[in-house]
Write a structure and sequence with these properties.
The structure is a single chain. The protein has about 600 residues and is α+β, with helices and mostly antiparallel strands. It has three domains: about 1-285, Beta-Lactamase (2-Layer Sandwich), CATH 3.30.450; about 310-380; about 425-575, Histidine kinase-like ATPase, C-terminal domain (Heat Shock Protein 90, 2-Layer Sandwich), CATH 3.30.565.10. It has 13 helices and 19 strands. The protein has helices at about 5-70, 75-80, 85-100, 195-200, 280, 285-330, 345-385, 390-405, 410-425, 435-450, 475-490, 520-530, 545-555; strands at about 110-115, 120-125, 155-160, 165-175, 185-190, 210-215, 220-225, 225-230, 235-240, 250-255, 255-265, 270-280, 430-435, 455-460, 470, 495-505, 510-515, 560-565, 570-575. Strands 8-7-6-12-11-10-9 form a seven-stranded antiparallel sheet. A five-stranded antiparallel sheet has the order 2-1-5-4-3. It has a five-stranded mixed sheet with strand order 14-16-17-19-18. A hairpin with a 3-residue loop joins strand 16 (about 495-505) and strand 17 (about 510-515).
Length: about 600
């Protein structure tokens, strides 16, 4: 009820649309920026993990080459299969030299080489000083005598020989002869966990995030310089775009919360680095979004208030004046009011209202004049009205007097005129039967035959079985009248009008009215088709009028055509549908 006025509706719609648009823009911007921030964080994390992985891969490759050298070196094989102090010392120095020349030598905590029975032992590395002595008696803790399979980069464990706790990546390999697969010894390489820790010591983890290392099926959390084995997180199967083909990003449930886990393979065996991203830290707080919407709503409401004031000045006052002007017109005040004709669209409405008032005033005056003219016309019609029965009775009296006096021509002519006037006065149906139309034509031709003294002849060749065909009333009479006046009378001698009928197809009847008169020139024919006045029996029924009445009665393509040859003939062709006057199909049988 409060929003009935145009001003209030425009204000409400404008404010609502602006508020909705502002909310949509703010929401779209919020979610787009949040998505961009999340994607940016993922890309940054992926780059950092790829960098750390690449550095770790270099060290791992270098250590793997050291393992391959030990397991395939012939000098080591010779040492394991022979005795002698000199061979042992030479082999030890060679192994030590190879370790010191390795690119990742600082991460070799220890390397132990023994035969299968642990009777021979070489031990060197970076943690010799901080380690317990390694002997053939305690070496079985890392190299059992039953060990015959390789275990490489598969787990993280404690170094049993260190005085303090320390984690290593243990590598166990069998040593075989160079010429066969026979096992001659064993290798134990303890890779320091510093290989990974040194790379991340300057790595800043955002609050609420963690770093992980995956080796095979084991998943370790890296925290406070230690690797802690934890359960592999459950993925929620939601992926995000990454720059690297091998990098994966998925939503996981960890510690009862949802995190994004970015995982990048190091490119060395089945080892990868992962980092979690807290969705709660990346996303904006809901309160921030709500506050943004509140600010937008307040601004839009202020905008609506200002818009209401502007609309009141621009629309409300002019509309009020227009309403007052309409009320004045309703109270019959049709005077011109120039104060509502402003220079804008409302001014156009005001000018329209003034024009409407002027037209209403003119219409009322014309209505009064028409009413006066109507009364005068009714009076004249009463003065000129003749009782048809009086006219018929008078003509019948003339006919009987002519019969008594043996004036048969006068009697026949009077009878025809009486029937013709009777049909004209009772012409209610626009479509009659062809038989009725021919009767009217016969009455008319009888009168014309006496007028022209017997020089006219009408030949009707239409079969009587077509009498029920429907045709517009007074179609043939104007055509025969034109044939007499324009064709036969100028001829100055006897002439004839011929009526014929043919069937065209299953639904068309063609009636031909032809005379043997002087014909019609082309310009006269065009004028004859264009005018509706003949000056004959009916002043307003000409060929043009007949054609139009056929078209109105039956629609296209029904109508008439005229063919004429000067000095020879004129032929009018009438095409009507093969139907009765009631509109039903004509029974051909």
């Amino acid at each position: 009820m409060r929003f009935k006025t145009l001003k209030s509706k425009i204000t409400l719609l404008t404010v609502s649309f602006t508020l909705l648009l502002a909310i949509l823009v703010a929401s779209f911007s919020f979610f787009m920026f949040r998505s961009f921030a999340l994607q940016s964080q993922i890309t940054s994390t992926e780059f950092n993990l790829q960098f750390i992985g690449a550095k770790a891969r270099q060290s791992m490759i270098a250590l793997d080459s050291l393992v391959r050298w030990v397991t395939t070196n012939s000098q080591i094989t010779t040492y394991l299969e022979s005795d002698g102090v000199e061979v042992a010392l030479a082999t030890y120095e060679r192994v030590k030299e190879e370790v010191m020349n390795n690119l990742a030598q600082q991460y070799v905590n220890r390397i132990i080489i023994t035969d299968l029975q642990h009777t021979k032992l070489i031990h060197t590395g970076q943690q010799m000083a901080a380690s317990k002595p390694v002997t053939v008696l305690n070496v079985t803790s890392v190299l059992p005598t039953t060990f015959v399979e390789d275990t490489t980069w598969s787990t993280i464990t404690s170094d049993p020989f260190l005085f303090t706790d320390g984690q290593v990546l243990p590598i166990r390999r069998v040593i075989t002869r160079s010429s066969s697969t026979e096992v001659t010894g064993q290798l134990y390489l303890a890779v320091s966990s510093a290989l990974i820790l040194d790379l991340i010591k300057d790595y800043t983890l955002p609050e609420g995030t963690s770093l992980y290392l995956t080796i095979g099926q084991d998943f370790y959390e890296i925290k406070d310089g230690l690797f802690t084995l934890v359960d592999l997180p459950r993925s929620i199967d939601r992926s995000y775009a990454t720059s690297g083909d091998a990098t994966t990003v998925a939503s996981v449930r960890m510690n009862g919360n949802t995190h994004l886990l970015v995982t990048c393979p190091t490119g060395f065996q089945d080892i990868s680095l992962s980092q979690t991203l807290s969705l709660g830290k990346i996303q904006f707080q809901n309160s921030t979004y709500v506050a943004l919407l509140v600010v937008i709503t307040v601004l839009v409401l202020f905008f609506g208030l200002g818009l209401t004031l502007v609309l009141n000045r621009l629309f409300n006052r002019p509309i009020s004046k227009l309403q007052e002007r309409l009320k004045a017109i309703a109270e019959s005040d049709f005077s011109h009011d120039a104060s509502i004709e402003w220079g804008d669209e409302l001014g156009d409405i005001g000018r329209g209202i003034n024009d409407l008032a002027r037209q209403i005033d003119s219409l009322l005056e014309r209505r009064v004049a028409d009413e006066k003219n109507k009364q005068e016309l009714e009076y004249r019609m009463l003065q000129s009205q003749i009782n048809p029965h009086f006219l018929y009775n008078t003509l019948n009296s003339i006919k009987w007097m002519a019969t008594l006096q043996h004036a048969t021509g006068i009697a026949e002519m009077t009878t025809s005129l009486s029937r013709l006037l009777k049909n004209v006065s009772k012409a209610e149906d626009p479509v009659i039967s062809l038989a009725e139309e021919l009767d009217l034509l016969n009455d008319y031709f009888t009168i014309q035959k006496y007028r022209y003294g017997g020089t006219l002849q009408m030949v009707n060749t239409i079969d009587g079985r077509y009498g029920s065909i429907g045709i517009p009333r007074f179609t043939l009479q104007p055509l025969v009248e034109n044939a007499i006046f324009h064709g036969l009378e100028p001829k100055g001698s006897t002439g004839a009008v011929t009526l014929s009928l043919i069937e065209e197809g299953e639904d068309t009847i063609t009636i031909i009215v032809e005379d043997d008169g002087v014909g019609i020139e082309e310009h006269t024919l065009q004028a004859l088709l264009a005018t509706s006045s003949t000056g004959g029996m009916f002043r307003e029924i000409g060929i043009h009028n007949v054609a139009k009445r056929i078209e109105y009665a039956f629609g296209p393509p029904w109508g008439l055509d005229i063919e004429s040859k000067v000095g020879s003939y004129t032929r009018v062709i009438i095409r009507i549908p093969k139907r009765t006057k009631e509109g039903t199909p004509w029974p051909s049988s």
